[in-house]
């Protein structure tokens, strides 16, 4: 096993608390707000030299706090979220994909929300979860008292979409990033008298490329300055880039709203605010001349902005040059907040708290391992080494343009051995591998259990609406041969009411359908048509590759008594009087007892 930290986190925090008590200093436990953006690259901030946009509010966090210059995340969404939430490499906890179950980190992992909740904090998460939808993977089961947003990897529309609130399906209110910020501000107001932990994973600038008119109008005709690397400049899609930058300025506006609210409520001095992104940019655009984008294990796919403001303990304008990663945030924030805890599993992350407070720390030859879908690289203080054998001096060649493996063979060989040890120990899987873990259903603590189309297998002639499954629905359900099947593991007993969210063209109503699990069967008739068009494209600023959505209607199918065990949950038609049964978005199980 790799050495992760020279001093255990609990001992460090105990020493800090003891010192404060000895000097008679009473420090209010700080609130914590963690903002995570989706597909925003390191270069998508004016802080990092991008001349195409202005992000003064995010930039102010660096001016008034600390900027971590060499901070790394994973090359795609869900692995980064797992590493932030657990302090451990995502491969250790079972994450290998971004959909259909592979985004779930194991249920026995301790989360940052667990840690802060155990310390007396009230916790909330608002936004894109992307770490599992059903209990025990749902955010309410991972230490968050309140959750509002969507659990999938991407969403089909950002203007008043269907969302969930603590498992129950609800409708959003306006542009989603604005809505999520409103939720966070409301939570702060409600819990301002006690310490709170708010995780705010924004969904932009991930596609679909949607943003309010006021933000888009500043960019729709804007001339763009290209990235210094010609390969990035040549591959830039100008319209997509304009939309992404407009979305980033909208994020900055909402960060400003949040910071202003902390100021007006007198909470700013006692609140830690963290801002970072989950991977490199979702397109070739200005990124400081770095090679790679989202999905890459080069600098451009892995380097993320990280700014942290905590006026009580972090001096304005602090710069931290140490290499660090998303795994470091759990131990860092716990130490800054004087939260004592005992990790249930060894962490890969180490605390940066001392460095953030101006005290140099030694990392003793630390390396940061990155892997995704068969690619892997290793970052040391000076170098990045790729599994292909290439070696780059990042301190002088951030763009990874000059392979120096031949002129520095000993360094390449040493980093290769370390990389191989990581690969042997962590055994990362490729994202194309099929998920072998079932979808969970009927957890004793879950009042709502969502079974979406994205987690099901279409059989017969039934088809998924798009190859990117996260926000899909099932279509071409035209006969009694087709089935929609979920491989489920029922975790508890109980009577549940089951409903289905559907669309049905006029004239196709009247199909009889059956839902079965083992010996349990419930039957219903789709008596009412719900003929609605696809939507989402009316708000797109750039064409999407993911599918569009519909406004779904809910129908109650009946009640089902769940009992523990693994089986196939099957939805099929027994009579089809028209040309199609329906289009199916999800099933919802609601506990009745």
What features would you highlight for this structure?
single chain; 593 residues; alpha+beta; Alkaline Phosphatase, subunit A; Jelly Rolls; 12 helices; globular
Report on this model:
- By secondary structure, the protein is an alpha+beta fold.
- The protein folds into 3 domains: 33-313 and 323-349, Alkaline Phosphatase, subunit A (3-Layer(aba) Sandwich); 375-426, no CATH class; 439-591, Sandwich (Jelly Rolls), CATH 2.60.120.260.
- It contains 12 helices and 26 strands.
- It has a 10-stranded mixed beta sheet with strand order 6-5-4-3-7-1-8-9-2-10, sandwiched between helices.
- A hairpin with a 4-residue loop joins strand 13 and strand 14 (391-393).
- Belongs to the sulfatase family.
- Keywords: Calcium, Hydrolase, Metal-binding, Signal.
- Its EC number is 3.1.6.1.
- It comes from Rubripirellula lacrimiformis.
Q: Which structural category do the helix and sheet elements fall into?
A: alpha+beta
Q: What is the 3D form? A: globular
- At the fourth CATH level, what is the homologous superfamily of the largest domain? Alkaline Phosphatase, subunit A
Q: Helical residue percent?
A: 10-25%
CATH class of the largest domain, named Alpha Beta
Low-confidence stretches: 1-25
Domain count: 3
- Which range does the strand content fall in? 25-35%
CATH architecture of the largest domain: 3-Layer(aba) Sandwich
What Rg do the Cα atoms give? Answer: 24 Å
CATH topology of the largest domain: Alkaline Phosphatase, subunit A
**Can you count the helices?**
12
Largest sheet: 10 strands, mixed
Order of strands side by side in the largest beta sheet?
Answer: 6-5-4-3-7-1-8-9-2-10
End-to-end Cα distance: 46 Å
Mean pLDDT, to the nearest integer, reads 94
Number of strands: 26
- As an assembly, this protein is single chain
């Amino acid at each position: 096993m790799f050495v992760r930290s020279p001093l255990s986190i609990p001992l460090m925090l105990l020493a800090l608390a003891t010192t404060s008590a000895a000097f008679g200093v009473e420090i209010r436990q700080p609130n914590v707000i963690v903002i995570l953006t989706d597909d925003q690259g390191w270069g998508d901030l004016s802080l990092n030299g991008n001349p195409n946009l202005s992000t003064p509010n995010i930039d102010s966090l660096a001016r008034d706090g600390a900027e971590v210059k060499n901070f790394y995340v994973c090359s795609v969404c869900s692995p980064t979220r797992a590493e932030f939430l657990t302090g451990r490499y995502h491969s250790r906890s079972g994450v290998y994909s971004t959909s259909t179950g592979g985004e779930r980190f194991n249920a026995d992992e301790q989360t940052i929300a667990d840690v802060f909740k155990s310390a007396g904090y009230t916790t909330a998460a608002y936004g894109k979860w992307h770490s599992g939808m059903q209990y025990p993977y749902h955010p309410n089961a991972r230490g968050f008292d309140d959750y509002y947003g969507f659990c999938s990897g991407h969403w089909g529309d950002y203007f008043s979409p269907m969302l969930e609130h603590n498992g129950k399906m609800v409708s959003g209110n306006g542009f989603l990033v604005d809505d999520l910020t409103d939720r966070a501000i409301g939570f702060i107001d409600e819990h301002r008298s006690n310490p709170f932990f708010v995780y705010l994973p924004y969904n932009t600038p991930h596609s679909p490329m949607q943003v309010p008119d006021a933000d888009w109008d500043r960019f729709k005709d804007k001339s763009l300055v290209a990235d210094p690397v010609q390969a990035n400049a040549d591959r830039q899609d100008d319209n997509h880039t304009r939309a992404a930058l407009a979305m980033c300025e909208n994020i900055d506006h909402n960060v400003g709203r949040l910071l202003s609210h902390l100021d007006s409520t007198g909470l700013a001095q006692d609140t830690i605010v963290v801002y970072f992104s989950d991977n490199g940019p979702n397109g070739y655009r200005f990124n400081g001349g770095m090679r790679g984008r989202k999905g890459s294990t080069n600098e451009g796919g892995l380097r993320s902005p990280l700014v942290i403001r905590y006026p009580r303990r972090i001096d304005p304008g602090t710069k931290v040059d140490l290499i660090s990663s998303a795994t470091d945030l759990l131990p860092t924030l716990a130490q800054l907040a004087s939260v004592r805890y005992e990790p249930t599993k060894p962490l890969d992350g180490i605390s940066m708290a001392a460095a953030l407070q101006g005290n140099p720390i030694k990392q003793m030859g630390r390396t940061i391992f990155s892997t995704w879908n068969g690619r892997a690289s290793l970052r040391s203080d000076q170098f990045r080494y790729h599994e292909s054998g290439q070696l780059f001096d990042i301190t002088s060649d951030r763009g990874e343009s000059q392979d120096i493996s031949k002129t520095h063979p000993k360094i390449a060989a040493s980093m290769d051995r370390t990389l191989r040890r990581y690969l042997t120990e962590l055994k990362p899987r490729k994202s194309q591998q099929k998920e072998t873990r079932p979808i969970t259903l009927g957890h004793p603590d879950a009042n709502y259990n969502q079974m979406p189309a994205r987690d099901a297998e279409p059989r017969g002639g039934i088809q998924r609406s798009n190859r990117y499954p996260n926000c899909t629905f099932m279509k071409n359900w035209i006969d009694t041969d087709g089935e929609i099947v979920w491989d489920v593991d029922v975790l508890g007993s109980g009577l549940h009411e089951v409903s289905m969210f559907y669309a049905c063209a006029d004239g196709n109503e009247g199909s009889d359908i059956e839902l079965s699990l083992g010996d349990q069967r419930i039957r219903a008739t789709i008596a009412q048509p719900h003929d609605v068009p696809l939507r989402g494209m009316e708000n797109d600023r750039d064409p999407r590759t993911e599918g569009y959505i519909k406004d779904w209607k809910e129908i109650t199918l009946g009640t089902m008594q769940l009992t523990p065990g693994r089986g196939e949950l099957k939805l099929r038609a027994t009579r089809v009087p028209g040309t199609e049964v329906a289009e199916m978005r999800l099933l919802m199980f609601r506990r009745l007892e």
